[in-house]
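Here is one record:
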Amino acid sequence: MALSVWLTFFLAAWAISISPGAGAVAAMSAGARHGFARGYCMSFGLVLGIWTQVVAVGVGLGALIATSATAFAVLKWLGAAYLVWLGVQQWRARPVPLVEAAAEKTVPAVRTLVLRGWMVNAVNPKGTVFLLAVVPQFLDLAAPLAPQYLVIAATLGFTDLVVMGVYTALAAKLLRALEAPRQIRWIHRVFGSLLIVAGALLASLRRAA
């Protein structure tokens, strides 16, 4: 991949990462509920989900999802159900201040947060179709494709880790300033509602003809 092409994709990757979506809501939700140090673990899962999408596009599974109504529907409803489930969990979360929550032994394990993040992005057919439309524009078909896909995956991973880190930190800082259970409960419900809305929007997504 030529440097000029990569620089263009690098700018596009920032736009992709910054744009609001289920990943951003999940990152902020994790930060609001668990604080930055623990909540940021979800960002690694979100990146793994993006890499899963890149692999799917690279090996042709992305084309199958984009053209097969059944494959698209299965992935869409799985992703929507998972986002709604995360939203319900956020709604039901105990209103514990972050200082107290950090001392609890019931906080999710790192692998649990990573898995949740991976699920958010990996089962989102909208991401697959989007990458399928964008990535080929930056590929040199006359050159080996594997190294180019590695560069694309690394670039998307870097920008997403930075952007999701900012989202997580902002949410964690917001909630850390709140101590009243009623305030924390409403913050949880706001993020829980956003996740449910994201799930509903994903469920309403239709495959392009």
Observations:
- The chain has a mean pLDDT of 81.
- The chain has one domain: 23-203.
- Residues 45 and 117 are 4 Å apart (CA to CA).
- The chain is about 80% helix and 0% strand.
